[in-house]
## 1
Amino acid sequence: MRERSKSVIKLTGIDCDVLGVLVNYMYSARVCITESNVQSLLEAADLLQLNSVKQACEEFLVRFLDVDNCLGMHAFAQLHVCPALEREARRVMLSRFMELIQEEEFLELDREKMQSVLAGETHLKSTHSPPLSKNSVLDCYESFINNRFWLITMVHY
């Protein structure tokens, strides 16, 4: 810990306002988590090993999970090792899969990420039809992506 011998320590990657919230937490044991600061706060708490703040941020994010943000939150949870957020984001993805495939973010997934999302899932639940197998979903996804690229190239000519 070479920081011990320095009089000034530069914390790169931490927003000044977020650092202020964390310093306030260290003095008061209270933290103000908002929709606008939660991700930055979780990242900083993770970096500074403030596990109680990180866990509070994770719980906050779980409450705001929805089909329109579950893919991004799943990736964020994996990056910052947030098991509850990752598990809940995956649950939203699988339980609302038919809605998820209509989201713009879904179209940006590659096959590996799709396989990661579906890992361990043998059937997807759907209220509109019988359960879909993981392989049929992957085949459908790949066909959709291939046809989308074909359609884009046709439109440009």
## 2
Amino acid sequence: MKNIKLTSLSIAIATSIVLSGCGSDSDSSPEQEFGKFSLGVSDNPADANIVNVAFKQVVLKNSEGSVSFDVSVGEDGLQHVDLLSVQGQNVETLVSG
């Protein structure tokens, strides 16, 4: 019985040692990973006649720098959004990807 417990313990230790090496990478400069980012605008229902906003660019900043997304689509270099048409759960997407 003691031999069986010792064998089971040996198998468990050996398995954990082997698995601890899985997924490790000896490369000192790992590849940069990118996530997906989407940004949209919406408004609460309002008692208004006109609510328009215009966007030219979306900029994400952190301590290491920034990433810019050009969202202009109009002839004037802006993306116009009528917020009265995107109320509640409706969304006008500015950036997707």
